Amino acid sequence: MADFTSIRPNALIQSAYGQSKDLKAVTEAQPEKAESFGDMLRAAAAQSAETVRQGDEISTAGLTGDASVQQVVEATMDMESTVRVSVAVRDRIVEAYQEIMRMPI
């Protein structure tokens, strides 16, 4: 039996590399427009919500037989990792806020 565990991560790395090259070209073309931290968080939250929504749609399609089991499992894994990262970021933001509130004035 062949081991296909390395295929998906390599594809993800190559995809991320390709996307980073595209982002670099965009940021080099428009150096005067810097993205704020709030904009970055807003975009990440929107992308997370979109990933969860797509995963939910694929899960529903899997129940009706319109999506394969592999597609459902991949969508579920993407949703799970997205939720885990979102919760970790939220926890860090809350922790930073609490630390700021403990600072003496």
Explain the overall architecture:
The protein has 3 helices and no strands. The N and C termini lie far apart (64 Å). The model is unreliable at 1-7 (pLDDT under 50). By secondary structure, the chain is mainly alpha-helical.
Set down the secondary structure blueprint.
Blueprint: H1 7-29, H2 37-64, H3 69-102
Helix pairs in contact: 2-3
> What amount of the residues lies in strands?
under 5%
Largest sheet: none
Could you estimate the helical fraction of the residues in percent?
over 70%
Tell me the Rg in angstroms: 19 Å
Number of helices: 3
Instruction: Name the quaternary structure.
Output: single chain
List the keywords:
105 residues, mainly alpha, 0% strand, 3 helices
Short description:
This protein has three helices and no strands. The protein has helices spanning 7-29, 37-64, 69-102.
